[in-house]
Input
Amino acid sequence: MNQDYIKPDNWSIIEEGFDAEQVKSSESLFSIGNGAMGQRANFEEFYSGDTFQGSYIGGIYYPDKTKVGWWKNGYPEYFAKVLNAPNWIGINIEINGENLDLAACKEVKKFRRELNMKEGIYYRSFEATLQNGTEISVNVQRFLSLDLDEVGAINYEITPLNMDAKIVFKPYVDAGVHNEDANWEEKFWEPLEVTNFGNEAFVTARTFKTHFTATTFMQNNLMLNGKNQNGSPSNVATSKEKIEFTYEVMVATGETAALQKLGGYTVSMNHENTLLAAKNVIKDALKVGYVNLLLEQINQWGKIWEMSDITIDGDVKAQQGIRFNIFQLNQTYLGKDFRLNIGPKGFTGEKYGGSTYWDTEAYCIPFYMATKDQQVARNLLAYRYNQLDKAIENAGKLGFKNGAALYPMVTMNGEECHNEWEITFEEIHRNGAIAFAIFNYYRFTGDYSYIPEKGLEVLIGIARFWHQRATYSTHRNQFVILGVTGPNEYENNVNNNFYTNYLAKWCIDYAIEQINKVAKEFGNDYARIMNKVNLDEAEISHWKKVADNMYFPYSEEHDIYLQQDGFLDKELVKVHDLDKSQRPINQKWSWDRILRSPYIKQADTLQGFYFFEDHFTKDQLEKHFDFYEPFTVHESSLSPCVHSIQAATLGRMEQAYTFYLRTSRLDLDDYNKEVEEGLHITSMAGTWMSIVEGFGGMRVKNDALHFEPRIPTEWDAYSFKINFRNQILKVSVHQKETKFSLEGDKELTVFVNGKAVLVEPNSLVTV
Output
C-alpha cells in the first residue's frame, strides 16, 4: 500500500489531519528552496516527536572521512556530505506557562499543511488544546525569497480561543546542528561568534576542514492584531553556538499575536565579511518589507511557471504530480550560479551525499534547456569543464595516464567522493553521459561554440579514458571492457555491459568527429587545444581501432544485445512471477541473492536505446523492451521515466501512462518507502521528459523539432512549452488534434508525424 494522505489538487500539496507517523514524510514533501538554500518542512516550534531537522546551503559541504572496513588503492579519501546548516527557523513558544509541542498537546485538530506551488509559499495551520486547558488557533506562513535569495520569512500567528493568554515567543538561531548521516557522530560546524543588536541576531560558524564560513541571522517583529509592537526582546540568552530572544505579549481571547521572523544565511562563497553582509541583507529585506517580499515571491514564481508549466486536463493526480516535480526542480536549481549543480536530494535531505551525479547530464539538462534559456544548460556543461583537471586526477589515482579523464560518480568539487568500490571504480558509464550531454546541448540549441571553447577538451579526456579502459581479447579478436557496473546496480563487476561498451565506442567516434570539425572550422582553437593536450594522429588512430572493434554481447536465440556476458545463465524468472511479499528486493533480499538474480534496477540496455534511439529500428526497440522490461523491478527513481518514453514510442499508452504516474508520483505516493529521507530531485526531470518526449514525442532531428503526439485515454488534453533556439513554442495535445502556437516574430517549421508544419508567430495552427 502506498501512502495516500496527500490530497489531490492542481496547484497545491495538501495534508489534512495530524498524524505523528507522517511527520518525517511531510517534512520532505513540503520542503522549500530557492536555488541558493532550502529546508525541510520542520515545525518552527519545539516538537518532541520523531523528526528529521534539515536546512541546507548550496555549495557548502563537508568531507566526512570514508567509512570502509578495508582500504584499497584508489579509494576516495572522504565521503562528501551535504551539510546540515544552522537552524534559523526555530521559534519556541510558551502559552500561559506551557510549552507548545504538538506531540504533547491534549488535542490537535484542523491540522493542515499546504505547499502552494503556484506562489512558492508553505502554510501550516491547526487548533490545539494544551494540557493547561488553553485552546489556540495557529497559522504559519513561510517562504524562501527568490528575489533576495539569502532571505527566508516566517509569519507565525497565534489566536487564543477560550481564554486570555500570555504568549511568549522565543525565536532563535542555532549552529549546534548535526547531520543525520554523519559517519562518526562528529560535529561539522565550529561556532566563531554570536552577536545581537536590537531585534537582530547573528551566529557565525565555520565548517571544519573545508572552512566555509556562514553567518546565520534573524530579525524579529512582534505584532498584535496586525500592528507592529516595536518592542525589543525582554531577554537575550546566548551560548557559544546559539542565541535566543524572548518576546512576551498578553493576548485577549479572539485577538491575534504574531511573530514575523526574517532569517537566512550569508556565506563566504559570496562574501568576504559574512557578518557585515548579513546586516546588509536584513536592511535590504526590511526596506522591501514582509508584504512586498511576499508579492515579489508570487510574481517571480509566476514567471517561472509561465515557461515551465505543463497543464493536464481531466486527471488531477497526474497534474499535481508533474507540477510537484517541476516545482522541486526549480526550487533546487535555477541556473543563476555556475558553481552549483543539482543534487539527487536537492535541499530536502542528506542521503547519497555529494551534489553532482550523472543524473544531471542524462536527465536534468533536457529540462533546463527547454524551460530556461540555453545559458543555464551551458553553465551545467561548463561546471564539468571546470572540473576536468580533477577528472584527470581521479583517473590517475586508478592508474590511467596521458590526460585520460574519469569523471566522478559523486562529487562536490570534481574529486570522487563515493566510497562503494562497485560504483566508484566500476560504474564508469557516467563518463559517457557527460559526453552525451555535450552532443545533446549542440543538437538542441545549435550553439556549437561550446565545443571549440571548452567541450572538445572534455571529449578528448573521456576518449583517452575509454581507449585505455578497453582490453584487447585475443580470444574474441575484439576489444572488451571488463569489470564494470552498468546503470543496473543489481549487477556488479560484470564483463561487457552492452550500454557501457556502446557508450565507449560512441564517445570515441564522437570525439574524433569533433576534433576533425574543429580542425576544419576553428583553426586557432584547434591549435590551442592540440598544443595543450598533446594529441597527435597516431594516438587518434589507436582510439579508432578500439571503437571500430568493440565487442557487444549478443544472443542469436533472442535476437537481442545482452545486458552483459552471461546474462542468460541466470534463472530467468520474470518480475510478475515474483511473490509480492519479496518486493522491494533491495529491502528484502541479501545483496548476494540480488546479484545472482536476473532483476534489473533501472533501464540499462534500454538506456542505450533511449540515448541512441536513431541508431536502432523500432522493431529492435520493441524486441529489447519486451525482453528486459519484464525483469525490471524499477527500484531506482530513474527507471520509470525511460520506460514510459519507450512504451509511448511503441504506442503502448496504457503502460506508458502507468510508468508516468509512477515517476511523477514517486515521492507523493512514496513508492519506494523512503520519502522521509528526502525527495528524488534529479529523477523529477525524467517525469518532464515522460510527457514531452514520451507522450509529446518531441525529438530534435536535423536542426528541427519533430513531434509524434499521443495522449493517454485518461486525459482530455495536455500542453507544454519549449524554448527552442530562443523561440518559444507552445504545444497543446487533445484527443483528436494538436495545436501549436509561437511567441516572437519569426516563423518556425516543425514536423508532426513526419510532415512539415509551418507555425507563424502569434497564430494558432491545428493539426
